[in-house]
Amino acid sequence: MEEHELIKAAQRGDSLSLSLLFRDHYARLVSYLRKVTMHPQLAEDLAQETMLKAMEKIGLYNGSSKFSSWLITIGTRLYIDYLRRRKREQAWQEEQQQALRRMRWQAQAHGDEWPHLLDALAQMPEGIRIPIVLKHYYGYTYEEIGRMLDIPAGTVKSRVSNGILALRKELTDDEQG
User: Fold this and answer.
1) What percent of the chain has pLDDT over 70?
2) Do residues 146 and 135 make contact, with C-beta atoms less than 8 angstroms apart?
3) Mind listing the pLDDT tens digit for each residue in 95-138?
4) 92 Cβ partners below 8 Å, 6+ apart?
5) More confident: 26 or 103
């Protein structure tokens, strides 16, 4: 069966035709994405995402370009979206680091012992750090924190408790080491 026939059959819902199309184009797509990303695992992930997107959108393929070009366009757009997300995440992380540096500087300027605590807090996962900060620095109840984070109050209480124990251990180890 020729490619245009496979495409028409895939658009009618023939999964075998769709899988044959993907089989015929997958290696070329991965090769292209490896060259663009310079990262083999990312290229594989993007190729998989491209195939899923193409599966969803096969009905929109109008034949104005080659099928391989259509797949490459989808893959390229997914990669550009990935880069944008990564850039936003890096900017957010940089902002968080700057905020942490400012907090350390302010604590040192006031002669507080906070820098060690802030360092220890910074190492904790957000799921533990956020409830601790909300409870012990802002005075919210477990119920209020639970509503804010959309988790049960008991979960908040255990995260705060376990987090405080971890902080104490970390700060004690720092003093001894």
Assistant:
1) 90
2) no
3) 877 776 776 666 666 555 566 777 788 788 888 888 988 888 78
4) none
5) 26
DSSP 123: T
- Taking the CA atoms of residue 38, residue 40, residue 46 and residue 47 in that order, the dihedral angle to the nearest 10 degrees is 120
Q: How far from 50 is each of 14, 41, 55, 133, CA to CA, in Å?
A: 19, 14, 8, 41
pTM, 2 dp: 0.57
Contact 32, 50 (CB under 8 A): no
Report long-range pairs for 127-133 (Cβ below 8 Å, ≥24 apart).
Answer: 127/159, 128/159, 128/160, 128/162, 128/163, 128/166, 129/163, 131/156, 131/159, 131/160, 131/163, 132/159, 132/160, 132/163, 132/164, 132/167
The answer to whether residues 50 and 66 touch, using CB atoms and an 8 Å cutoff, is no
Tell me what the pLDDT averaged over the chain comes to: 88
